[in-house]
Amino acid sequence: MKKYILIIAVFFSIGISGCKKDYLSLEVNPNNPSVSPPGLTLSGALVVAAAITNQSYSQYGAWMEYWTNSGNFVPNPALDQFQITNQSYTGVWTSLYQNLTNFNNLQVSAAADPTLGDYQAIAMIMKVYDFEQLVDQFGDVPYSQAFNPTKYLNPAYDAQLAIYNDFTKQLDAAIALAVKGGTNPGSADIVFGGVMANWIKFANTLKLRIVLRQSTHAPNAAAVADLSTTSSYGYLDNTIDAEAQPGYLDLLSNGASQASPFYSDYGFDVTGNSTPNNTYYRASNFYISLLTNDNDPRLNQVYSPAAGTTIQGNTFGQVGAAVLSNSFTAGVGPGIIISPTMNAVLIGHAQACFMQAEALQNNIGLGTGASFASAQAAYQAGITSSFVDMQVGATPAASQAAAATYYGQNIANIGWAASTNKEEAIIYQEWFSLFGYGNLEAYLNYERTGYPILPNPLSLDPSAVSTIAPIRQYYPLSEEETNQASVAKEGTINIFTTKIFWEK
């Protein structure tokens, strides 16, 4: 499949740049999109979706205590002090809408050809995947009017709950198309290789995530009931997850810029030197202390110590002489930046298991498609998947054995029997497993449940404007300038108090 990536990188570079005017500029008429082979459109849009998930959320990695500031740099006011404006962390808005246009074009063109039902189904599933990131960070967003600029030059903002309700309808329709079948995308599908049964599992897992998002604060009985209508097709789990692999290249061997997106951001460049993010983000003392106290062997996989030192880090928001330089602090480790050719994760094994564990524990019916007989089994499978994915042992079997030793401890939030608060234990372990690629998901879980319990104040920077991280993002300045009337209807946004509808 390596032949795809060089073509895709050029054709879809606009989708990840985040520098163009806005999403409205990408398309003249979505009902008559520019002609592109469906296979190329699909591959390209999937590459961009994976890149957004794996590259766009470094700030959440700091706020979730995975990494912190380096003594080699001056403090970043937006990151360390939460002094955020409508120009902070908003590039993802543009990137997501640009790529949603790609998926929408594919959906529209495939709908016109009865043989392309599989393409249409994947496009619909991925639109939910991308739109969910927008809603979960920005709240109300353009949805029903988003892709028809000739009719809606200034698209209205749909209510968050209404969008969530439509997600389930879109996923059900996509599953029906996938079951019906059509021309198989084959290798153009860089996630599942054309295995549509796995796309259905992915769609079901998204439905489960939608239910869990709402379960803590705003339960949706209709969404819960809908799980049973497609549950027999199953879910992602410890045997099947969603990862993109278009043929990422080994930088050192090829001298190219087509490495796996997470590695290219947090790993090493073509000369073997640390990338800027690898240099900037250092180990978090909070995360180190928990792993150490829990006798967790993942410590040596998530962090790589500076030469000749033990694993140590900084405390988030520290300033002055107390902040250690990179000569003394650990960076992102070998179990996270595995290789330039590593897959790009959309939903990983561990997260899929922990979502099922939470559903089973809270009596949210997974129906006949549940992968596990109990919440405990799903919980322990999630921990094991994390150990295997982070390559804790020299072989998968060794990693599995290490996981069993770890969760066999009589320690709360590790051993199942020792954990009186099962939800806290599940989210705590899911948080460990999401290090790096899953920064956004860890943040959203925290905003939903309050777990794991993080330091308060979160940042030690004396100039921090809040004791907690923002609970949402501002609408981008570009959106305020081009869609002013719609943004104005949303009222005044306070990023520390204006909640997404499902937040605790």
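the 2nd protein, sequnce then structure:
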Amino acid sequence: MNLNELQARAKRHEPLSKHTTARIGGPADLLIEVRTTDELVAVAQRAEEMGLPYLVLGGGANVLVSDAGVRGLVIVNRAREIKFNVRGSKARVEVDSGVMLTTLARDCIERGLAGMEWAVNVPGTVGGAVVGNAGAYGADIAGNLNLVRVMPRGRAPEYWTPRQLQFGYRTSALKRYAPADRPIVLSATFDLRLDYRANLERRANEFIARRKATQPSGASIGSMFKNPDGDYAGRLIEACGLKGKCIGGAMISDKHANFFINVSGDARASDVKALIDLAHDAVLRRFGINLELEIELIGEWADAELRIGKLNPGDQGGADER
């Protein structure tokens, strides 16, 4: 891709509220959508050649984009090819990083392939899920992962094993990079097993019912804080009397206190950040527990606004059960 092609395809001052699950976020200087991993590689490499800082955004879950937006280029990843290879009782599936987790889970269920049904109602893309080791209901991405194709900044694409990825609770070796320096996840390969489709559908329906019963609807980022050892962030925030607390257009959900909702439809990132600080400090004062962000703060933030972010860099991941 040459410079003229990039400029012709890029949108200028595009509101990132159009590209996040919370419908929150200021403008990107430039934004371009890519449809294949080849395009993703080409655009990223061209941006590096130009000295243009860039950030890759998937489904827009588990990120809070600042009201000031993002300087440089935002690449929205829509690469969504899935390849299935079934041999005997086992299967291997290669998935582009822009594939939605919900799509992957449902496609696997339809083919009678077990291992991803926990993700049937988890927002976000495969790429973000790999970075943050997304999970729910006692399972996570690391559980079935075989190999990941990544492109480190300034280098050619290469393959990383689960051991190289150093997965932990809602984190990985990739997550330890700052967003501006993070290798790009291009695709992931998972090992699955055959099962009866009826069994998989039953389990998926149980997960959907549990989510509906315990987690709020509406525009949200996802689980705000990691669960501390032996407890739940939502329970701690609720015990501080903060369920239903509003600042501006944002609200700590009155259904599950670890979800912060864009209740007005026009909430600002600063509203959500104020609720983050309020909940964090209330839990720290009452319980002595320093809650760590599960989401990631993206874009231009004033130093004072990043108080929690600097202490505890947010980790992308899927929604936890309560």
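The radius of gyration is 19 Å. The chain has three domains: 3-77, 82-212, 217-311.
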